[in-house]
Structures are given as C-alpha cells and as structure tokens.
User: Which sequence fits this backbone?
C-alpha cells in the first residue's frame, strides 16, 4: 500500500491513465457541475469524479483508492440527503452514464445498471404492464434506494425493494467481481438487502417484477383534508390501514398544497393533512377496495383516478427538483400514538416553508410478512417509515427548516420503534446506524469484516467491521 503525497490534480491525472470513462478533476470546467448532488446544501470537493464506462473502470477506481488510501465515494442517483455520493478529497465512482435496463418478461425480471433512476426502470417495465417495488419519486437512484431497503407504493402488495432483489453484481474491496444471490455469496446478498453501500460497489441489480393494476395502470392519487381535521384523519388512517387489502397502499403526511395546477387555486399554499393512495390490484375490485377511502370524512380534494403507475411515481418529481436545500430526520414507528397525532397536527400547522413536510410510509402487508432476520432491513413488525423533511430553495432558510425538522423529530422520537431508515437520515453517527439495524447489526459487522475489513467503503451510513 502506498500513499499518494500529491495534489487533487495529480490524483486525477494519475487515475485518468487507467479508466475509459470521462474523469473530471478540480481543474476541469465541468467540475462544479459534476460535484453537485441532489441536496443543494451539500458542497464537497472530490479529488476526481469518474463517470465509469464499465465494470473495469469500477475495479480501477476501487484498486486505486485502496492502494493510495484515498477516500472512495460511490454515487448512484446522488439523492442521499447526507450527500454521500461526493466527498472531500475522494475518488468518486459516478454511475451517471450507466443507465441501461433489460426486461425479461418470461422470467418476470428486470436488470438495471447502477446509474438508473426509478424512472428508467418504470419506463422499461411499464411497457410490459409490470413494475418492481421502489419509492415515491422517480428521479431517485435505484442503487442507493435498493441498498437501504426501499419503501414505496407497492410495499404492501409486493414487499420492499430488497424483497424483490434477485441478484447483484458487485465489485468487492479487493477489486474482485462477484454476483451475489441466494446461493452465491448468500451472506453478502443478505447484507446488501438493507445494509447500504458498506459491502462493495454494485454495478448491476436484477429485480423480480410484478403485474400492476390493469396493464400497468393503477388507481391512485391524493386525498387532502383540512389541518383542523388532522387528528381525526390520522386516527382513522392508523386504524383502517392494517385491515385494508395488500394491494391498497397509502402514505399519510402533513404538507402545504403546491401553488400549481392541477391543485385548485383556492387550496394553494394551504397547510393540509393528506394521504396519497395507490390501488394496484385488478380494476374490477377498485371501487369496492377504495370505498372506505371515498366514504371517510370531508376531504378538501379527492384526486383518485386511474393512471399509469409511472405517472403516480413521477407526480412529485417537478416539485422536488434537484438543488433544493434539504435536512431530514427519520424514525420507524410501530404505531401512531395519540400523543404523536397531537404533534403531527401541531407541527403541521407550523410547516416553515412550502416544501417542508412529514410523511409516514407503510411497512405492512407483504413487507411485514418477511422475517426480521431474512434481510438486513430490520423493521418488519408492521408500521411506518417516517420522515420529516425541511426543504427550501433558499440557503438562507436552511437553518429554519432544520430547526423545525429537529424539534418535530425530537417530540416524536419517544413514540418511535427506536431507529430510523438509513436512506432518510443525515450522517448521524454510529449509535443511529446501530439503531437502524437493531438485531441485525452484529451480523452486518461480521459480514463487513469478511468483505471489507479495512472499511474502504465508509462514505455511507457506516457499519464498522467487527
Ligand atoms: C426526493 C426523494 C424521495 C425519496 N423517496 C424515497 C422513497 O420513496 N422510498 C425510499 O425507500 N427512499 C426514498 N428516498 C431516499 C433514497 O432511498 C435515498 O436517498 C437513496 O440513498 C438514494 O439513492 P441514490 O442512488 O440516488 O443516492 P446516492 O446519494 O447516489 O447514494 C446513496 C448511498 O448509496 C451508496 N451507493 C450508491 N450507489 C451505489 C452502488 N452502485 N454501489 C454501492 N453503493 C452505492 C452511496 O455511496 C451512498 O452511501 C428518497 C430520496 C429523495 C431525495
């Protein structure tokens, strides 16, 4: 092992010799654009950003970083709130140019390169009336979302994203390349399903796909209620959701109505409590399944309608454009207590900026029938993945939205199950990572020791080797 006693420019020049994809270093005109990630509050200066052309480039970057003891960051879609996709002084493996997909409709699978967004995958599978469970925003990266777990519209119907991962191609810390699945490197495969980017660089993912709705068309959309009704809405939702069929999912939140079509102008900027529903079962049952939703309360707006799954998946893309300032905090909740409901209403009424919000994503139905130790993702007892996000375009408001998110989170935390979702936390230290994995943490540290004993892959929600 040798240490490169040189400037970032020299690092870039040295690595340039061994990669085929474009490399952007600090002196290149594209550098400032290339080092941006989704969260506009992140401002880091890597030594070199390699837009890898193939697996060979990934191996070259891993070997280079290991030999020269240079930090190594891996960027899939670049969406992580903590901005782990870039790091000061690091070599960045950037998958931006690796976005191909292959659907095998006979096997019912889709293979996706590590630079794909969920929009890429939805586009590919949608043509076959199929989908793989993912998240709620189509610009999110497949890689990071999958490696952390993946909660989304189809979680109750078909499980988390990790429950649908069939295989992953991985470059390990020593530069070797393996395919991990149930029979080949099963421990690694277990750890990849929730353990984040700690175990290797995944170059390609293969997922199981499922039929959704009618030829890929679901019935879904938002139902919004006055904030004054929030307590009643939360209580009804927490009581009714577990009894609903798996093919109906709905996340609840507090938010400000966007000041844009298709929302009626009289609701613009109004603080509301909302549930976004997705019914992904056969069309002939839609009316019956959605009847309890349509019959409840006095909504300000009911936006339920048939639409392609990919349309619901991308409904928030425009609002949540890259470059906004983000600060978010997460926890899992096994119940929504009356005490928590009081806080949801209180903090819902004081949402500090139009995009700041709180969401509770169900982890129930199929996602909760997977045993807690079947994958690294540990929170399977039925309940919700909760996130409180302070968001605004203006850096001057970052402190204000951060304070709101922190206070809200601190109030709710005693009602939580203890840990939060690694994909929706900032960099919050070892205790929070440990809590995120509860009973699975020890096994993760042992697998880490086997696959990455020197913690080369540490720019993430880090699991230190045992
Ligand atoms: C607007 C928005 C909406 C979201 N909605 C959801 C949602 O509905 N459901 C949900 O589950 N999550 C959601 N998330 C969270 C999301 O899962 C995480 O932000 C996730 O980390 C994004 O993955 P990425 O590849 O885009 O991120 P990146 O920042 O590129 O990577 C995230 C982490 O994964 C590692 N990583 C990336 N690529 C690889 C790779 N190829 N091999 C090994 N490690 C890698 C990185 O090093 C980093 O530690 C959302 C995030 C945002 C910003």
Assistant:
């Amino acid at each position: 092992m040798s240490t490169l006693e040189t400037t970032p420019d020299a690092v870039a020049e040295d690595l340039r010799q061994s990669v085929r994809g474009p490399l952007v270093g600090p002196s290149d005109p594209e550098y400032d654009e290339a080092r941006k990630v989704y969260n506009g509050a992140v401002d880091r200066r890597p030594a070199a950003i390699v837009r890898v052309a193939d697996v060979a480039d990934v191996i070259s970057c891993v070997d280079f970083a290991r030999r020269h003891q240079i930090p190594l960051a891996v960027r899939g879609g670049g969406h992580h709130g903590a901005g782990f996709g870039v790091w000061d002084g690091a070599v960045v493996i950037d998958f931006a140019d690796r976005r191909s997909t292959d659907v095998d409709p006979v096997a019912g699978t889709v293979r996706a390169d590590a630079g794909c967004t969920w929009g890429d995958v939805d586009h590919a599978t949608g043509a076959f009336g199929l989908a793989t469970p993912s998240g709620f925003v189509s610009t999110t990266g497949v890689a990071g979302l999958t490696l952390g777990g993946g909660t989304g519209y189809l979680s109750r119907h078909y499980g988390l994203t990790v429950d649908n991962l069939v295989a992953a191609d991985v470059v390990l810390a020593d530069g070797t390349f393996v395919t991990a699945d149930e029979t080949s490197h099963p421990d690694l495969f277990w750890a990849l399903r929730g353990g984040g980017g700690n175990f290797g660089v995944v170059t390609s993912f293969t997922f199981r796909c499922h039929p959704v709705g009618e030829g890929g068309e679901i019935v879904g959309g938002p139902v919004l209620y006055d904030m004054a009704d929030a307590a009643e809405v939360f209580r009804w939702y927490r009581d009714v959701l577990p009894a609903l069929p798996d093919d109906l999912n709905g996340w609840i939140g507090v938010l400000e109505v966007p000041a844009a079509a298709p929302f009626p102008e009289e609701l613009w900027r109004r603080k509301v409590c909302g549930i976004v529903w997705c019914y992904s079962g056969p069309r002939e049952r839609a009316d019956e399944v959605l009847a309890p939703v349509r019959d409840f309360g006095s909504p300000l707006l009911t936006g339920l309608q048939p639409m392609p799954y990919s349309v619901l998946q991308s409904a928030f893309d425009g609002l949540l454009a890259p470059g906004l300032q983000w600060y978010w905090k997460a926890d899992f909740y096994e119940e929504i207590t009356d005490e928590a409901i009081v806080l949801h209403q209180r903090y819902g009424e004081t949402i500090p900026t139009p995009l700041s919000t709180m969401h509770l994503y169900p982890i129930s139905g199929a996602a909760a029938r997977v045993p807690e130790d079947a994958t690294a993702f540990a929170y399977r007892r039925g309940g919700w993945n909760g996130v409180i996000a302070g968001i605004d375009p203006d850096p001057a408001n970052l402190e204000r939205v951060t304070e709101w998110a922190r206070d809200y989170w601190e109030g709710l935390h005693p009602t939580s199950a203890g840990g939060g979702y690694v994909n929706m936390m900032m960099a919050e230290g070892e205790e929070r990572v440990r809590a995120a994995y509860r009973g699975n943490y020890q096994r993760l540290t042992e697998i880490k020791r086997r696959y990455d004993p020197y913690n080369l892959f540490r720019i993430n929600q880090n699991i230190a080797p045992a």
Remarks:
- The radius of gyration is 22 Å.
- The first strand starts at residue 23 and ends at 24.
- The mean pLDDT is 96.
- The chain has three domains: 8-94, 101-212+440-451, 217-424.
